[in-house]
Amino acid sequence: MRIGALARAAGTTTRTLRYYEQEGLLTSARTPAGYRDYDPAAEHRVRNVRELLALGFTIADVREFLPWLDRELPPTFAAGAGCAAAMRVAEERLALIRQRLDTLTQLHDSLAARLDRPAFAPGALTG
User: Fold this and answer.
1) CA-CA distance, 116 to 16, in Å (whole number)?
2) Residue 34 region, left (φ>0) first, then alpha (ψ -120 to 50), else beta?
3) What is the pTM assigned to this prediction?
4) Which positions ≥6 away from 111 have C-beta within 8 Å?
5) Whether the Cβ atoms of residue 57 and residue 93 lie closer than 8 Å to each other
6) What letter would DSSP give residue 76?
7) Segment 82-116, tens digit of pLDDT
8) Which three-class secondary structure state does DSSP give residue 29?
9) Of 97, 126, 122, 125, nearest to 112 (Cα)?
10) Which of 22, 69, 113, 117 lies at 20 to 30 Å from 87 by C-alpha?
């Protein structure tokens, strides 16, 4: 499958696919003319990469999931044989997201306390 076909099938761009390849998340063969040629299973891998990124993982985090990218991702992550590194990354990412939420909540509360009106009232920030 050529790069354009894979991009359309996976709902992404050719630029993104080249980036995933550069980052070691995706591989391709080359045709005699030098075009990238992907295995049909690459679509599943790209969809998994995109799903993990949408969950808040970074590209570096996703590398920890390489052994599982060609299968169906489970609806929940659970510790199991061979999953320790991926679980550690998931726990670290969750802790970082929780820390960011706490920071944003504090920022929200500080700003809301300075307003002379309810922070969530419709039109509270307009004229």
Assistant:
1) 46
2) left
3) 0.76
4) 119
5) yes
6) S
7) 677 778 888 999 999 999 999 999 999 999 999 87
8) strand
9) 125
10) 22
